[in-house]
Design goal:
Blueprint (H helix, E strand, L loop, with lengths): L1 H21 L15 H11 L2 H9 L9 H6 L3 H29 L5
């Protein structure tokens, strides 16, 4: 699952985020990039999360950290959004399963 999410990370970054970086309207609306490539995760999160949660993010004091979902919806097509949704939730699930495996190993579940 991690390997597939890595492939989707590169694919989503090359197909969708590269297009958004070149667009002057969306160039500075991709959220804060803590490390190289973090804006790819910001864009995927903005496309994958429910709009009610994204609106709460936009109203908070930390709204500059997140990508502008409304603007991204205007500048992406259906394929971009589906790719972002699949990538984001696969990344989150692989991280969650990794944490669960570490916890199970720590309590001695595997012997």
């Amino acid at each position: 699952m991690n390997f597939v999410s890595m492939i989707l990370f590169v694919l989503f970054g090359q197909v969708t985020v590269r297009k958004l970086r070149k667009n002057p309207q969306t160039k500075h609306e991709l959220g804060v990039e803590f490390v190289s490539g973090w804006d790819i995760i910001n864009v995927a999160q903005a496309l994958a999360m429910p709009k009610s949660i994204i609106r709460k993010f936009n109203k908070s004091q930390l709204s500059a950290l997140y990508a502008d979902a409304d603007l991204l919806y205007k500048h992406t097509n259906k394929i971009d959004r589906v790719l972002g949704i699949i990538f984001y939730w696969l990344l989150m699930l692989s991280g969650l399963f990794g944490i669960i495996l570490v916890l199970l190993d720590a309590i001695g579940f595997f012997g």
